[in-house]
Each structure stands twice: as structure tokens, then as C-alpha cells.
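User: Can you write out an input/output pair for a complex, sequences first and structure second?

Assistant: Here is one pair. Inputs:
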Amino acid sequence: MTIAQVIFAVISAVVLVSAVLVVASRNIVHAALWLILSLFGVAALFAVLEAGFIAVVQVVIYVGAIATLIIFAIMLTRREMREAGQQTHRWWPLPALLGMALFAGLAWLLVSLPGTGATPPALAGDDPVLLLGQALLSPEQYMLPFEVASVLLLAALVGAIVVAGDTR
Amino acid sequence: MVNLGNFFYTLGMWLQGLLMRAGLSESGARGVFSALVAALLPLLALLTAVPLIWLERKWIARLQDRMGPNRVGPFGLLQVFADMIKIFTKEDITPLGADRVVFALAPVLAVAGVLGLWAVIPFAANAFGVDLNVGVLYLVAVGTLSTLAIMLAGWSANNKYALLGAFRTVAQMISYEVPLVLSLLVPVLLSGSLGLNGIVGAQREVWFVFSAPLAALLFLIASQAEVSRAPFDLLEAESEIVAGFNIEYSGMKFGFFFVGEFLHSFTMGLLGATLFLGGWTGPGVEAFPALGAVYLILKGTFVYFIFVWARATFPRIRIDQMLDFNWKLLTPLGLFLIPLLAVVNRGLSESSLWLRNAALLGANVLLAVLVLIILGMRGRSARMRAASTVAPAPAGSRR
């Protein structure tokens, strides 16, 4: 194994273990903290893949959002913040099977894609952030999806204000 | 080439050469060198907190017409060491019912969030931890860590006051992140680079504080709120919630928060100097790049002085004022400022440097005047309303 592969394996292990602990821990704040670690690990994976922009955005959006999530968790749960009941449902093998099937399907799809496992091509001399920005705003590339997503988010914002705001 | 002016670069090259002669491969030497820098930079940052605390106490004392520390050592210079010894020997208390792991994790995160910022600050043209091409975004990402730390501290201590302080954190630090990011966008826009070294390089001729003074002001206010010092110290307001999020902390754990706060303020000063005051640029930097570090620290200390000055001068604002100020003034101002500057900057991209910067300054002044006029009108109408409701008070209704 090369050094890069060792780093990848370590980070992946951190991501997976903390992801399991998110659903397994009984304290809701601990679950949120494990979620943060898991998402940090994903950001580190992006960084290893030389996608610095995506890595940083991952941290900005998710960790910032989860900080707020913790507060809501504290405000909305009971005083103990501990679920004493059973953690599994009677039907748990079924979703487990479905999840594994989904994973197998995705893995098969990725492996069958051309170029999987090949060494990534060296990045061109241009700044990747610059290329990303140009791709998002040029009409031939991703301008339409970008704008549609923006309008969707705006609609969600307006909707949130309508739901939460005073009715006069 | 032995050039003392290029001190940091020469030192780095010498060290790597030494490691390679000791039998390491080139990539190995580079790796060891990077690890060394990664260990030394935070250490250096933590050590700057010692003179910083003394400097701030002296400054605050002068602003409040006191002497400040002057008993321990000459000019009270050793006061910080005395305080350190005191804090090291204090009992480390974990309150009953506290979440032990999270309680211990929070102070560490608070300091780590600040030290992480030092990784991207360019101290001289070729002396920086790493020149990320997304440096400005990285600053925002690392900044979320300190919010998280305060929230965890408040939650884990099993104390109502601490939890209230944590709730205020959400209201304040997350809100003020918005104008902070908006103000960070302006140097990015003007320099065309997300990397901090690129932003400094674009300020060789004109500092951004002259072409975008409003953005610099936004940054100043928003970063003061991010560091949560007076007038924005609602999360530890002594008169309301005792000590806020750090109420249960004692000994070295409290010391972590204390050092983290001072260091965060100074780091924000360094960032302000980097983004708006030209960073390491200055006379003679081309010939002697190491001079840049001196310039940056001088400029950063100047911005830090403004933070301390504000801290000593203003009373703490109320929580509703704090939110109104952010959402009704700073955020809209930032949102108007960015398109305005973008249009002016783009429209005059062909014209001479001085004309473009003069136009940018003019646009800033225009927006500032407009905002002041609107604020004045709103204030006048509010006063009129208050006067018209108070004036015909029925005689003897109350009191």
C-alpha cells in the first residue's frame, strides 16, 4: 500500500465508525458530535482527492449547520436527553437488506463505469476554483441547473418565512 | 544564495538540505520539515498570547485612566507569568452531572479553532503554513469550530447559566458570520483570488481599506462579534448570566478559554491586516522579504488595538439590539456593497489603477452617506412617534 492508500483507509475507518456511532449512541448530543466527526472525515477524503474547495465547503455548511442542530436537539428533547427504550425495530433486517442492496448496486455501478481505478489525471495548470466558477456560470455548462437550484432554495427560504412569520 | 532579508526561505531551505544530508529522501525531508512547521507555528501562536495579555491589560488600564499591572517585574511584565502559575496550580473541577468527555473537549476545540487560522496567514511573501487556493473559505470553516466549542462548553457543564450562554452563542456568532463572510468576499472580489497570499499580492499598490472602507468596517464589527468581546460579550454577560458558558470551568481549562479569546482577537487583527491593510507589503519588502513579518505584526497589532479600544469604550449592547444591528443594518449593507463594488470594479477594469480605486472609494462613500441618511430618517420618525404617544399623557394617570 502506498502512503495515500493508508491515509485513505484510516480516514474511511474514522468516517464509518463514527457514522455507526451516530445512530448507536443514546445521548442525542453525542450523536450530533459523532456526526460532526464523520462529516469532517468526509471533508478530509475530499482534501485527499485534491478537491480543496469541496472539502472546505463541506465543513462550512455541515459543521455550521450541526452546531445549530445541537441547540435545537437540546431545546426540543426531554430533560434527560437519553432514550432509554429499545434502539432497534422489530423489522430491522428488512431495511438492512435494502441498504445493502443499494450499496451493492452503487458499488457495481461505480466499478462498471469506465475509468474507475485509473490514476486521476493531473490537474491542469488553471486554478480548480476558477474552473468550477466558470463552469457554474457559463450557459453551455451548468448555468441552468445552478440557477434552478438557486430559485428552489429561495422558494424554500420564502416558505420558511411564511410558515414562521406572523399572520396579520 | 545567502540573503538575510529572505530569512524564512533561507532557513527552510537550509533545514531541508540538512535533513537530506542526514540520509532522508527529498520527499521525506519535505515531510519532516512540514511536520516541524506544523508543530512550531501553533507553539509560536500560543507564545504570542503572553505579551498580548500584558499589552491588552496595559492598554485597557490607560483607556480607563488606571496604571494597569505594575507590581510584578518591570512595568508589570511578569504579571502574566504570575497569573499562569496561579492558574496552573488551581484545582481542576468537573461539576457533578457534567458530560466529562465533552466538558474536557470544549476548551481544546476553542484553542484549536484559533490556532487553525494561523495555518493560512501569510507572514511574508514566502513564509506561510500553506497557501490554500481557498484560503478565505478555510477561515470561515475553521471559525465554525470556535462556535461549536462554546456551545459544547455551555451544554456539557450541567448548568442553566452556561446553557443560556450557549443559546446566546447561536444567536450571535452564527448571525454575525453572515456579515463577516460578506465582508470577506470584498477583498476576494477586488483581488480575484480566494488565497490569502493572492489577496495580499493584489494590495501592492493600494490597500483594500482605501478602496473598500465599508467592507473593512463590516469586518471590524463582525469579527469583534465573532470573538464575542465587549460590546458583544453577551454570552458571558456577568450581570445577567454570571459568567455564561465558562461558568463551571476552573484552572487550566478556564485558562484555555482565556488564552483562546485573547489569541482569537489578535488573530482577527492579523487577518484584518492581511485582508485590508496590505498584509506583509511595505517599503523594502521586495529586497528583504523577511521584513514583511514585521510589517504584518505591526499592522495586526494596530487592528488589535482598535478591538481593545472598542472593548474598553462601549457598554454591552442588549440582545435585541445585537440582532437588529446585524440583520437590519450590517447584512443588508453587505448585500448592497458587493454588487455595487462588483459593477464598479468590472466597469472600470480597463481604466487606470488610480481612477478605478477612486471610483471604488466614491461608491463606498456614496453608500455610507445613503445609509446614514436612511438611519437618520428612521431615527427621526421613531422619535416623532415616541413624542406623539408620550406628549398627550393624561394628567395624573400614573405615578
